[in-house]
Description:
The protein has 313 residues and is mostly helical. Helix content is 67%, strand content 0%. The chain has helices spanning 38-61, 66-71, 83-92, 97-129, 135-147, 150-163, 171-178, 181-194, 197-205, 210-218, 223-238, 242-247, 256-268, 277-311. α5 crosses α8 (181-194), α8 (181-194) packs parallel to α14 and α9 packs across α10. It starts with 37 loop residues before the first helix and ends with a helix.
Amino acid sequence: MTVALSPVQPSATAPVPGRPPVPPRKRSKTGAAPRKSTFITVVMLAAAAYFLLPIAWLVIASTKTNSGLFRSFGFAFDRDFALFSNIADVFTRDNGIFVRWLLNTVVYASVSAVGATLLATLAGYAFAKYQFPGGRLLFSVILGAIMIPSTALAIPTYLLFSGAGLTDTPLAVILPSIVNPFGLYLMMVYAQGAIDTSLLEAGRIDGAGEFRIFWQLCLRVLAPGMVTVLLFSLVATWNNYFLPLIMLNTSDLLPLTVGLAQWQSAASRGNGGEALFSAVISGSLVSTIPLVIAFLFLQKYWQSGLTAGGVKG
């Protein structure tokens, strides 16, 4: 008795002579192949368009002259390419005041971000790893402060700084920006998950003090969370408009947000003054470059900090 054997059909992943091997599909932990969702894909494309289209418009508009902004479509290049002349105009207008505004913004954002990160790290670590009287009540007050919008606190903050004689000084922008309740909450959640209590006990057994344990053992573990808070604080201070607007009067102390708004206001008055639309748009493009560089340089720490803070809480 003979049995007829059917020819073996090649599988989809089997190598074919003359063709490069096809890598196997990644499978989830349960062994099932990842499913593709059309709805999620559409939502992600819509979200990407929502965030990228304004940036694309800003880049394209920065290449146009004042007249080219009104005679061409928003997402189309004009026949006159004026990007480099616009940037040169931004840096030389009003005796180079834009450079002064840029340096002010760098100082305000850097000092505020570093200060807010250190303060949030110290306080978050203390709330996460120490028990002290009134700790729960104090932390509840801090959580309540997260819910209060910063614009609601602007006028009381101005009155306090005016009474202390600190208005129209760099401290009027830096000191309020150092206080970051959300950063404190994020660092507390991160410290709870990232630092094991046995690490603290081992340090105490070896005779280390509490500050030495924090500085030499825990600070390196908290680094991803600190970078996350640093970036949040940096962006918040860099883009802050209302606080410098009410605190500062001297033009040499203004940050980019308020300075560019003054140019925009001068261009929109329509009283026969010079049109500054291309200068304002090109200045806005230049002002975003430092933030993009900071995110590209620190994004791996930022992502790991956000993931740990979201999962281990």
